[in-house]
Amino acid sequence: MVSSMGHRVYGRLVPMDDFAPRIRIIDTKLGGRDGITACYLVQGDRVAIVDPGAQTSAQTVRDALTAEGIGPDDLYAIVLTHIHLDHCGGTGDLAAAFPQARVVVHGRGARHLADPERLVTASAAVYGDMADVYGGLAATPEERIDVAPDDHVVDLGGGVALRMLETPGHAFHHMSVLETGSGTLMAGDALGVELARGGLYPSTPPAAIDVAAGRASIARLKGLGAATVGVAHFAAPTAADPFAVADELWGRMGDAALAGFREGGAEGAAARVVADVPMQSAVTGDAARELWEWLGWHRDNLDGLAAWADRHENPPPPK
Ligand SMILES: [Zn+2]
Fold first, then answer.
1. Residue range(s) in the chain whose domain bears CATH number 3.60.15.10
2. What is the pLDDT of residues 297-319, one digit of tens each?
3. Where are the beta strands (DSSP E) in 120-242?
4. How far, in Å, is the centroid of ligand 1 from the Cα of 45?
5. How far is the CA of 53 from the centre of ligand 1 (A)?
């Protein structure tokens, strides 16, 4: 149907206020389980999704969009917070299913979407036994990709727009997304992960975390004064001030990793993080801990922090 403004209106999408005005969450059901990776569906006069999730979730997301009355030509943009496979793996499949959609991504991520082989190989090395749960990444034709600089805006019309903010830390190319009409922040993994409403805990995987950058990004996001905050894993954090919680934990984990690395290298870094900032102290509830365990993200966190401490203590010689 066509609204009085002449804009296309998408059936049951109006009004859409499940998470925030005009923003709904599609549970991508990673590994067939609930509440791990959120795909944010944002509707102005045009429709975009933020983070389609893993390739193994592409059909789930496609079905959800179809159920919302979004036809093959109705998706305007696929916006990516970063190119880890749990966020971007479905991009190529969804770009093929929705041939009008632009794919919007940080400049350091664009080439990997067009030519995913290296990214998929490197990811498999990190994910190990869990690689099949995520799947791979189908290539997106280069001409479909829009490179987003800092403060890039994807205007969806109807007063709805996605402002993309460079927020390195979890990954050097990470961008958070602010829907400016409603003041809704989709923080990706910049703050951390909160599974099963068990509390926010940083996500610091290999191979490119940066603790100082991560804390600066958290400060930048706090300064936005967003009315609503969502993280990719999963939806709204429970903390009243998720920025303060995230900053404190990032800081303590970075300090522990550096102190431990000076004592005993990578193993020392991991041991100090486990001793000083145990995930169990921040994450409550068996359901949340079981998910962290199943995903292996806690182990990835220790590897990432140890590698960062190594880079911090042994910076490469200037070129
Ligand atoms: Zn993630």
1. 1-162
2. 999 999 999 999 999 999 888 77
3. 145-148, 152-157, 160-166, 175-179, 184-186, 228-230
4. 28
5. 9
